[in-house]
Design a protein that fits this description.
Largest sheet: none
Helix content: 55-70%
Distance between the termini: 37 Å
Number of helices: 3
Structural class: mainly alpha
Order of helices and strands: HHH
Shape: elongated
Length: about 55
Amino acid sequence: KAELADVFYSAFLLAAHYGLDVKEIVLEKLESNKRKYPVEKARGRNEKYDALD
């Protein structure tokens, strides 16, 4: 737990330093992953995104 907290703390410090909105970044990444790994194709599979077709 402590190591994960360190990672989050560092990430939040970096975001603050560069004036980035963490919530916005996370939401953008979730949208990107949703497009890249559609649930109906990716669920239960471990193939790379370009092999999901």
